[in-house]
Amino acid sequence: MGLLECFKANIELWRPAFKQLRTFERVTRTLLGLLASHGRSTVTNAITFQGLEQKDWSADYKSFNRAEWRLRDLFRPVLTRGTRALPPAAPVVLAMDDTSLPKTGLRIPQARWCHDPLAPKFLDKQIRWGIRMIHVALIVPDYQNHRPLAVSTAFEPVPAMPKVKNPELLTEAELAALEGRKREASLTTRAVDLIRESRRILDGDGQGSRRLLMVVDGSFTNGPVVKGLPHHTDLIGRTRKNARLYAPLAQKEGKRIYGLALPTPEAYRVDPSVPEQMASLHYGGRLREIRFKEVPSVYWKDGTKGRLMRLLIVLPIPYQVPGRRKRGYNAPGYLLTTDLTSPADDLIQAYLDRWQIEVLHRDLKNGLGVGQVQASSHEANEKIHGAQVAAYSMLSLAALEAFSGGRTDEFPELPAWRKRRPAMRLSQHDLITMLRNDLVANPGLRSPDWKKPKGWALNHRETYQAA
User: Fold this and answer.
1) Which residues have a Cβ under 8 Å from the Cβ of 142 and sit 6 or more positions away?
2) Rounded distance, CA 146 to CA 150, Å?
3) What angle, rounded to 10 degrees, do the helices at 428-441 and 21-36 form?
4) Does pTM top 0.85 for this prediction?
5) Predicted confidence pLDDT, tens digits, the chain (467 residues)
6) What is the distance between the alpha carbons of residues 50 and 74, in angstroms, rounded to a whole number?
7) What does the pLDDT look like over 183-240, one tens digit per residue?
8) What would the 3-class secondary structure string for 224-257 be?
9) Distance between CA atoms of 356 and 352, rounded to whole angstroms?
10) Contact 7, 392 (CB under 8 A)
11) Between the CA of residue 218 and those of 155, 237, 238, 239, 295, what are the distances in Å?
């Protein structure tokens, strides 16, 4: 099967999520237009791509802000389909992170001030106006040139709480209700909800005993997230280098669980009495020898409290800086995990693979234009951005099935300047190019009124080969 046939088969899994067939067809055609259209990723361009610019547009917009369907019902088949690409005994590794979609309008629902990771460091407040999103991605260990594949399994907005005027005039009951709403809208609460939802999907797919490993950064490595982990679910995430750790008691004394205070993770890193270990892991485009240290049983009193953890310290990785004689070193990584039995090599490999969610952020926002849709209602903002990401996830899984994750001869020829450095794996540019070319040859998901857009012959900036 080709890419378009596999993509169409994946999209068919969404049919039970919609009450009406016409809503399913309208939503899928719009999402296909958002993937394959040129220019900005807006609903207007998606409609024009379908050749429906001279017809009523209202139904296409209403399918996102009025139709009764849930975004999570689109991501559920992504996770169940993606786990089929994993080895049978391998754990399901999910990377979690938060990001923001830049916006300019002050009246856009759910827009707020968010952290801007690309802002200059000399600014007092590194922020930008946008919609904060929480993102979960399945890591498929299909190591094409030592780089795994990340497939989004959740992409939801984190709601912003409106400011309350004159909070001193509120009663105690109103203040308690306000604090409850803040907790429900917090990033930590949404993270726990998504972890439990992922566990429910695996249980419903007959994989209740399969281990789920959540790989997170420091913002999710805290007590509420660890306490909210469901069954057969573990977490590994970063911690501070000066975290206060305690040893477990050799003999339990009443309610006490904390023993003697242990050195900080930074002290363990420089301590020569703690032996170093070596592992050959996929990182940075090739197999590398990664040095690490391990402390088997610790308590983090200020963070995860009574949950017994395991400390892994990834030592700095040397690399050669072009034009310099001295070698540079990456920053060390201090990791805490609830998994006390799995080999340390597998846990560190899972954390190194977490970087693919950052690469996926770039592909979604800079390549596909996620966040460029001009949605002016709360319901549309809840659905349209995540639905676009879910459609790209189905396209990535279709490419994995059709081409086994590699760049075969079916793809257009690379430009001359790319032949010196062959592609390391399928890129977002490759997938969209193949989708556009297949759409011209096969009217599989197009509207019956679709016409070839004017000026379809694309330049080299848009695609490698004109359809």
Assistant:
1) 85, 148, 149, 400, 404, 405
2) 13
3) 120
4) yes
5) 788 889 999 999 999 999 999 999 999 999 999 998 888 889 888 888 888 888 888 888 889 988 889 999 999 999 999 999 898 889 999 999 999 999 988 888 888 888 888 888 888 889 999 999 999 999 998 887 788 999 999 999 998 777 777 777 777 787 788 777 777 778 999 999 999 999 999 999 999 999 999 999 999 999 999 999 999 999 999 999 999 999 998 887 778 888 899 999 999 999 999 999 999 999 888 888 999 999 999 999 988 888 999 999 999 887 777 777 777 677 899 999 999 999 999 999 999 999 999 999 999 998 899 999 888 888 888 899 999 999 999 999 999 998 887 777 777 777 777 666 666 678 888 888 888 888 877 654 455 665 655 544 444 444 443 33
6) 22
7) 777 899 999 999 999 999 999 999 999 999 999 999 999 999 999 999 999 999 999 9
8) HHHHCCCCCEEEEEECCCCCCEEEEEEEEECCEE
9) 9
10) no
11) 19, 6, 5, 6, 19
Angle at 235 between CA 230 and CA 236, to 5 degrees: 180
159, 153 contact by CB (below 8 A): no
Q: Please state the φ and ψ torsions of residue 344, each to the nearest 5 degrees.
A: -65, -30
| Side-chain half-sphere exposure of 157, counting CA atoms within 13 A | 24
Q: How far apart are CA 47 and CA 55, in angstroms?
A: 9
Tokens of 318: 């040397």
Q: Are 27 and 67 in contact (CB under 8 A)?
A: yes
DSSP 285-336: TEEEEEEEEEEEEEEETTTTTTS-EEEEEEPPPEEEPTT-SSEEEPPPEEEE
| 8 A C-beta contact, residue 198 and residue 79 | yes
Cα separation, 292 vs 285, whole angstroms: 20
203: tokens are 């249980």
Smallest CA-to-CA distance from 44 within 32, 62, 30 is with: 30
Task: Name the nearest CA neighbour of 278 among 323, 314, 236.
Answer: 314
**Pair of tokens at residue 60:** 């296409």
Length of the chain: 467
Closest C-alpha to 188, from 241, 248, 237, 145: 237
CA distance 42 to 66: 18
DSSP for 178-216, please give it: HHHHHHHTSHHHHHHHHHHHHHHHHHHTT-TTS-EEEEE
Tally of CB atoms within 10 A around 239: 21
Contact predicate 346/255, CB 8 Å: no
- Domain ranges in the chain are 3-217+356-441, 236-341
Q: What is the DSSP letter of 13?
A: G
